[in-house]
Specification:
The protein has helices at residues 9-26, 33-48, 53-79; strands at 95-100, 109-113, 116-122, 133-140, 143-147. It has 3 helices and 5 strands. It is rod-shaped. Strands 1-2-3-5-4 form a 5-stranded mixed β-barrel.
Amino acid sequence: MNLPYSLDGHWIWASVAVVFLIAEIFTGGTYMLPLAVAAAAAAIISYFTGLGPVVEVLVFCSVTVIAYFAMRPFAARVTNAPDVSFGADRLIGMSGIVTKAIDGVNISGMVKIGGEEWRARSADGTPIPEGSEVIVQSVDGAHLRVSSPPA
């Protein structure tokens, strides 16, 4: 069967590069950009050398790794994304109000932070009365470790 167009490797790689560039537009980071650069490099190698699909795939893999590590500092500088913590870890450093007194040793109290109540224990073992302001120092399982703010 004769097709009216040639399905050479460089066209396939160029198409893959375009797909990755389009995907990059719809993703939140620069995750697809190294793949697009690598596919473009493989297309160039395929067009000018015609060394075959094995070499093209090796070029694609190599350039992906190199581009990923080369683009990391650039992406961090451009996006200026803060370090995002998940779960209760996001509360570290935040202040809250004690809603149930913390005895300081074994029994946990309750702390309200941003409209949510959390079980809390004293970070340094001192009792903290109800109504006191506290700062979250760390997370220990399902409990926050809190302390009174510095005076």
